Amino acid sequence: MKQEERRQQTIRRLMDTTKELIKENGCHSITMKDIMGKSGLSKGAIFHYVKSKNEIFVWVLQERLEATNVNFMNAVEHGRQTFNEPMEQIKESIIAYENPHDVTNKVLLYLLGKEDDPVVAEALKQYYDRSVHLSKLWIETGQRHGVITETVDAEKTADMFTLMTFGLRIRSGIPRVQSAFKAQDLTTFIGGILNPGTEDGKKG
To answer: Tens digit of pLDDT for each residue in 87-108?
Structure first.
């Protein structure tokens, strides 16, 4: 097995194991020993790639963002050049973030409480910056295809949407909140800004 394949397999096993443990026990109680025991990986194999569980948490946090980007670009490349099909990929991701049991939300809230750790602080910054960068990329892609209005300021709008999505995710961790503004409302709001004048921002 090539070194890169071994690396990818190890990372995949660490991430899958960690997500299972988070679902079972939450973020705070998990130890590297738990991850070793459940994954079947040795201490040496794990510490060859990471120094702490927080580094694995960062991988988990990043995973869906990158998957959404891949799905969005696939929808652009393989579908008709419309607004709705690529936007559907973003909608699905945002709606999943409203779930209080969502693993990535649990990880985000946990890491926000560890911001005094320089490694975590830098990871959070990079994650936020990446979120804004991809949102801007998606807007600019839509503008190039003529399905998002050119009057939209891609940079400011991407930052606003990222901020609103983070707020939605943080709210999901507050117990028993009665929210009037749902994830679906946010996606409709986003669609209306990007493609105004049509229902939910939809354009054939």
So the answer is: 899 999 999 999 888 999 999 9
